Amino acid sequence: MLGASAPLATGAITVQAATTTTQNSQTEMYNFVRNTFKKHHVRGVVTVVKNGVPQTISYGYAWYGKRIGNGNPKVTYPTASLQKVITAAIIVQLINETKNTDKAFNQNTKISRWYPNLKNANNISVGNLMTHTSGITAAKTEINRGIVYSEADALDWVVKNINNSPSDNVGTYHYNNSNFILLTGIIRQITGLSYEQNIQTRIIQKLGLKNTYLYQNIPKGITDPISYYSNGGKNYQNANYIKASLASQIPGAGNLFTTPDEYYRIQVGLSDGSILDKSDFHYLTHLNSKITEYCGGMYLKQNESLKSAYGSFYGMHFGTWVQLTTDNQNGIVMFLNQTNDNENAEKDVGYEILQHIKPNTFVSR
């Protein structure tokens, strides 16, 4: 009996020691992240990924007036431009699904097929939209027009706005929400379903996400956060929030809400076969029209060992940043709802955390 029980006891001690080490490590990371947020006067929530293990850490209030804390399960956060890679991923899915059909298309297909009345559409490819090299410079997509649009009406407005605005040469890089809003229209026309329905079946249901919604689908009892400004002085100043009218203007480019842990699951799904497989993700991020590090909603950096994206909203104080190793084993998904409206300052916060996760691996910008 003594001989038989000894290995079990040793194994139990080993497991207990490993568990204690992990708990100590996560406690240390928890304290480090919260102290870093405090030092920089930001508030928000971040999913820290270290050696493939995600840990979500929050600090401050998502809604100070109601004392609803960041990280509360009743809060879902705006992804801003971090949504764009999801829209692009659905396009890649459809490229695969329509092969050998009368709807077949690829990155080089001109968008005049779907937008015959759009200026210069005969020269703009699907890939140009996905790499912001369409030459479209039309602005005002984030200026709240005070109208709650349907997807179709939002697309109609964008087409008219592009037609009435100056354009640059196709192949010239201009980061512009209009490109990805137009992609939602392509998704609608190819599938015969709304972008909303495609997101629901292809992303949310596919991954079993419980706190991810397009703005119009956020249920009663769940709230999006308030954004606040801080310049190092008082906290929770200049409160602002995303209105239904603004969210409805930017389908596919900034109307998705989620939590950092669920967004991390989406990032994993972009290459593990759930949404895309590795070859699909390579296609997504290596389009022929790519002329910068940006492609398909993500920036690839450090010899493509890292992927990142940043997002914000004009006139508000949100800042979203994802930087992960391309194998999804290390990095952060950071959603801030109190900032000083400075992208580099926000990234400084994230970079301190990234350096703490795995030094000399990540980039500061």
From TrEMBL:
Keyword S-adenosyl-L-methionine belongs to the record: no
Annotated ranges, domain Beta-lactamase-related: 33-349
Signal peptide positions (record): 1-17
Record keywords: Signal
Record bears the keyword Signal: yes
InterPro entries: AmpC-like (IPR050491), Beta-lactam-related (IPR001466), Beta-lactam/transpept-like (IPR012338)
Gene3D superfamilies in the cross-refs: DD-peptidase/beta-lactamase superfamily
Protein name as it appears in the record: Beta-lactamase family protein
Organism for this UniProt entry: Lactobacillus panisapium
